[in-house]
Amino acid sequence: MSTDTLPTKRPAGPAASQDGRHTLRSKRVRSALRTVAFMSPWLVGFGVFFAYPLVSTLYFSFMKYDGLNPPTWRGLDNWSYVFSDLPKFWPAMQNTLWLAVVMVACRVVFGLGVGLLITKIKTGTGVFRTLFYLPYLAPPVAATLAFVFLLNPGTGPVNSLLEAVGIPAPSWFNDAAWAKPALTVLAVWGVGDLMVIFMAALLDVPKEQYEAAELDGASAWQRFRYVTLPNISPIVLFAVVTGVIGAMQYYTQPIVAAKVASGKMGGSGETFEPGYPDDSTLTLPQLVYNLGFGRFDYGAACVVALVLFALSMACTALLMRRRGGLIGSGD
Amino acid sequence: MTTASAFDRPVVGPAERRARRKAALHWIAVHSLGIATALFFVLPFVFVFLTSLMSDQQALTRDLTPNSWHWDNYVRVLDTPGFLTWWRNSLLYAGLGTVLVVVSSIPVAYALAKFRFRGRHLSLLLVISMMMLPPQVIIIPMYLFWAKQMDLSGTLWPLIIPMAFGDAFAIFLLRQFLLTIPNEYIEAARIDGCGEFRTLLKIVLPMARPGIAAVALFQFFYCWNDYFGPQIYASENPGAWTLSYGLESFKGAHHTDWNLTMAATVLVMAPVILVFFFAQKAFVEGVTLTGVKG
Q1: How far is the alpha carbon of B156 from chain A, nearest alpha carbon, in Å?
Q2: Which residues contact B77 (CB under 8 A, 6 or more apart)?
Q3: Helix/strand/coil for A73
Q4: Is the pTM above the cut of 0.95?
Q5: A-chain residues within 8 Å CB-CB of B113?
Q6: Structural element, H or E, at residue A6
Q7: Of A38, A122, A139, which is closest to B27 when you measure between CB atoms?
Q8: Is A286:A258 a contact under the CB 8 Å cutoff?
Q9: b/e per residue, A247-264, with b = 16+ CB within 10 A?
Q10: CA B264, CA B253: separation in Å to the nearest integer?
Q11: Which residues in A lie closer than 8 A to residue B164 (C-beta atoms)?
């Protein structure tokens, strides 16, 4: 690899003169030092806030440690405990995967639909776009509180409206079968980010392709299927993969919803067990929190953390494999 | 065909008339669907706001609109012990966090976008990995480090200090933006004998202003919205809670008072929405950068 600062090739320049080798070498050293200087904040951050804690997590996953007594070696006991004796692990895993599939699918389909709709709207586009985008900005805790209230079976306006038109209304956050769908509604409400991404991609589809398809007599669906989709497929894939990665970190909304809907805030004295109702909203990140900071079983918490790490990195690898289209290497 | 006079409508054949009617129907269909979708996005805000103005008793009923408008609910929320402290803490965390992240991420993003060096691709790969890492993966050692070694639990410093060492998402977003700045400008500055740091400061930064604005906004909202961080480090000390963390306990303290809880919710959402109206462009630009430009 060259030590040129910029990707473009430059002529050899004065380096070719008598003491060229000397200048070239000191130039190279200076260029390396400069790179290190510019990168230094992140180099420290990477070591202290990524590499070190990751190695520590692996280390603690083999230790018995409660934060008070010194850690002692436990070998694979934490691992076998989590996978076969921890009753909450598999529900948490299932919920996380459910959210990664259903919630992400709903968000992508709805986000694409709204993105298509906004490109078709000809009057008041700016107003519509702003209104569609606003929910994405709502702070998660505030949005979750609002939805627990809106979907409250007793006093919530949604169920009032549903019953007014004769639809039997579910108990949403208070019903194990409906808690995840309720979270999905909340996630779909905040689809503004995907709308913007899809909108930009849709506007980039070459007009000529639509015109050609129209001349060939393609129906609206055929135009979508054979012109739009192939053109935006990298963005769809990007939305799916980043959505799945997001699902792996899904934490604030389910924990706030469970606390508020159950009325158990985990304040002084009472311990809050996440997942209300019946572990239906328990996700892997919450299990890490619960094991580590609720039960002070740091070893088991680190095992779950590593499972989460493996899942997330698998998705990231998927993103990186399509780097050319999705991330862009800059060359 | 009738003969055209100045008062007649333009002559329209049946085919064109059909096309026009179709276009009009299409317009109506698209805009009705648009309005229906807008209702889905907006009604939650409306119901939250209406409930925030109800009396304590009415908030327990199924009424949708307040009988009388209790604007004093907002005063009651602001008078709740702690609420203004949480507000101040949120501003501190978000304000300091944003400044630190922007200042520390710019040079890194610049190096990744415009320098050629061994390990550039690997560095970018690691930045992206960090960005995708759920914060819960490394929280146990991080907590032990800040609480046991640094003795900083019960404060927001464990959340603020790391921001001085670059944030992966900010670095990535800025890099994407800096890639769009033509190399010729940097080249020209260098030929004129401008040092690398001065080039960044005088040439690149002014051009990167929209990208920096987007990163600053995203960082501000990330901190403002953060729930997990304050829960880990500040939960034991209510004096260090942020709005996002305190809001949930507010519901606990006011068990049945949905009106006050919704008023508090409005107060937490309001700054975000206000800032958005002033900085729409930067936002949309930022979201687009993450997904589309490569």
Answers
A1: 16
A2: B83, B250, B260, B263, B264, B267
A3: strand
A4: no
A5: 330
A6: none
A7: A122
A8: no
A9: bbbbbbbbbbbbbbbbee
A10: 12
A11: 41
What is the 3 state secondary structure string of B172-203?
HHHHHHHHCCCHHHHHHHHHCCCCHHHHHHHH
Mind listing the pLDDT tens digit of every residue in chain A (331 residues)? 444 455 554 444 444 445 566 677 888 888 899 999 999 999 999 999 999 999 999 999 999 999 889 999 999 999 999 999 999 999 999 999 999 999 999 999 999 999 999 999 989 998 999 999 999 999 999 999 999 999 998 888 999 889 989 999 999 999 999 999 999 999 999 999 999 999 999 999 999 999 999 999 999 999 999 999 999 998 999 899 999 999 999 999 999 999 999 887 765 556 678 998 999 999 999 999 999 999 999 999 999 999 999 999 998 888 777 655 445 544 4
Amino acid at A73: W
Nearest residue in chain A measured CA to CA from B171: A42
DSSP bridge pairs for B238: none
Q: Which residues are A63's β-sheet partners? A: A73
CB contact under 8 A, B137 and A312: yes
**Residue A294: its H or E element:** none
d(CA B165, CA A44): 7
Q: Would you call A64 helix, strand, or coil by DSSP?
A: strand
Q: How far is CA A150 from CA A187, B44, B62, in A?
A: 14, 7, 11
Cα atoms in the Cβ-side hemisphere of radius 13 Å centred on B48: 26
Contacts of A274 in chain B (CB under 8 A): none
What gap in Å lies between CA A249 and CA B116, rounded to an integer?
Answer: 33
Query: Best residue in B132, B153, B157, B224 to probe A by mutation, most A CBs within 10 Å?
Result: B132
CA distance A203 to A244: 25
Rounded to a whole number, what is the distance in angstroms from the first to the last CA of chain A? 13
